Amino acid sequence: MNAVFRCINGCDGEYPLTEVIYRCPSCGSLLEVAHDLEALREKHSGSEWRELFNSRLGTTRWPYGSGVWRYKEMVIPNIDDQSIVSMYEGNSNLFFAKRFGEMFGVKDLWVKMCGNTHTGSFKDLGMTVLVSMVNSMIRNGSPVKAVACASTGDTSAALAAYAANAGIPSIVFLPANKITTAQLVQPMANGSIVLALDTDFDGCMKIVQDVTKNNEIYLANSMNSLRIEGQKTIAAEILQQFDMEVPDTIIIPGGNLGNVSALGKGFKELKALGIIEKMPRIVVAQAEHANPLYMAYKNGYENFSAVQAKKTLASAIQIGDPVSVDKAISTLKQFNGIVEQASESELSEAAALADRTGMYTCPHTGVALAVFMKLAQSGAIASDERVVVVSTAHGLKFSEFKVGYHEKSLENITCSHANRPIELAADSGLVSEVLEREIEKVINNRI
Questions:
Q1: Strands 281-287 and 3-7
Q2: By C-alpha distance, which of 202, 200, 193, 160 is closest to 176?
Q3: Tens digit of each residue's pLDDT (9 = 90 or more) over 247-284
Q4: Where are the alpha helices (DSSP H) in 221-343?
Q5: Could you tell me which of 136, 141, 147, 126 has the C-alpha nearest to residue 190?
Q6: CA 429 to CA 328: how far, in whole Å?
Q7: Which of 126, 219, 224, 316 could anchor a disulfide with 230, C-beta 3.0 to 4.6 Å?
Q8: According to DSSP H, which parts of 285-415 are helical?
Q9: Which H or E run includes 281?
Q10: CB contact burial 262-283 (16+ within 10 A = b; e otherwise)
Q11: 115: exposed, middle or buried (C-beta count within 10 Å: 0-12, 13-18, 19+)?
Q12: Is the pTM of this model over 0.85?
C-alpha cells in the first residue's frame, strides 16, 4: 500500500509525500493525498476493516490508541511508527444534545466535541499527521529545519505543541490583537517563534507562503493536504461511535474550508472500502462577517469572490479568502451540501442557549448551532434526522467571549441569556429569601 500527492483537478503527475510541494506544478491547484484504494480493498473487506478499527479503540499499543492513527492505513500507511508524533489526539466524545435539539423539534442531535483533545481544538487531528511526516523526513536526511503556519489561534497552538513534542522549531504568524489571550499564550508556552503581524489572517497567509518558498521551512497550513488526512478521521470516529451508522446531516463551521473537504474525503474513502453504503449531507456554517462561501452558494457557485472579512466573535473563521475553497465546493456538490450563515447576535445567543443545556461552547460552535436552529426551524432539517454538529474547539479557549456575554459588554448583542452573580450581605435569612425567588424563577423559565 502506498499514498502519494496528486492534483485535485486530475493533472498528470504523482509526488511522494516526502516531497516539499503544496500545489500542482501544472495548474497551480491544491494537491490531495491519494491512496491505493484497490490495494486496501484487497487487504480487507469492509467488515474486516470495521473489526480492525474497533480492536484498536482504547489500546495502549503505539500508535493505534490515537483517534487518528487508529486508521493508519487510511492516513499515511507507510510511515515508520517511531516517526509518529502523537498525543493520542482525537477520541473525543459525542455529546447527546437532547434538550437543545428538542427545543427545535429534533430529538436526535449530537455534538462532536473535537475541542476535548490535547490543545483544545480539532486542529490536533491534522497536525499529528503533518508533524509526523516532517519528523520522518528530517530523520531521513531532509533539509527541512522548521515548520510554520499562519493562524487565528487554534492552528498555531496545535503546530507549536506537536513540533515541541518532536523537537522541531516552529514559527507561527498571528494577526496582532485579533486572537484571544488563551490562544496567543499556547504557542508562546510551547516555545514557538511567535510573529504578531499588523494584518489579518489573509495577510498572514500571504507572508507564510512567501517565507516557505525556501524548502527549509515547511508550510503547515491546511493547503498542505497532509493536514486533511488527519482531519478526515472525524468521519471514521463518528461512525464508530454510532456503531457504523451514518448520520443524516453533519454541520461544520467553515473558515479556511479544509475541514469541509476533509470530512467529505473521509466519508468517500470509507464508502470506497465498503465500510459504509450511504453518505451524509454536509452543511457548512459561516459567520456573516466572513461569508465568501455562503455568497457563492447563494449564486449556485457560478463564481466565487473573496471578501474582506470583518471582525467577528468567531475569530478562528474570520477568513475572507479561504485557500481550500475549490475542494470545499466540490465536496458540497457531492454531498447535497448546504451553506448557511449566522450573524454575531445569532451565534452569541445560540452559544449561550446551548450552554444552558450543559455545553460550554466556543463561538465557532455557536455559528454551527445557530445554523442548526435556522435549518430546523425552516424544515430543511427534518425532525426525525440524526444530526451531528462538529464543535471545533473548547469553550475555555474563548473565555473572554463568555465573560463579555455575561457581563453584557459584547457590542450590539442583547445577551438575553446573561447570568450574573447575585451580590448579597452575609445574612442567612436574606440568602434563603433570594434563593426561594430565584429557584422559582428558574423553574418557571426552564428552557
A1: unpaired
A2: 200
A3: 999 999 999 898 999 999 999 999 999 999 999 999 99
A4: 225-231, 233-241, 258-272, 292-298, 325-334
A5: 147
A6: 60
A7: 126
A8: 292-298, 325-334, 344-355, 363-378, 399-406
A9: strand 281-287
A10: bbbbbbbbbeebbbbeebbbbb
A11: buried
A12: yes
Cα separation, 167 vs 130, whole angstroms? 14
Cis peptide before 63 (omega within 30 of 0): yes
Q: Tell me the three cell numbers of residue 392.
A: 471545533
Cα 370 to Cα 251: distance, rounded to the nearest angstrom: 10
In the three-class reduction of DSSP (H, G, I as helix; E, B as strand; rest coil), residue 155 is classed as helix
Q: What is the pLDDT of residues 359-413, one digit of tens each?
A: 999 999 999 999 999 999 999 999 999 999 999 999 999 999 999 999 999 999 9
Give bridge partners of residue 35 from the DSSP assignment: 3
Number of helical H runs and strand E runs in the chain: 17, 13
CA distance 190 to 157: 8
Alpha carbon distance 167, 55 (integer Å): 31
- 445 pLDDT exceeds 90? no
**What values do phi and psi take at 278, rounded to 5?**
-105, 170
CA distance 37 to 43: 10
Identity at 370, one-letter amino acid code: A
Domains of the chain: 94-120+228-406 (3.40.50.1100)
pLDDT of the residue at 375: 98
Phi, psi (deg, nearest 5) at residue 337: -75, 155
Residue 2 grid coordinates: 502506498
Distance of alpha carbon 144 from alpha carbon 137, whole angstroms: 8
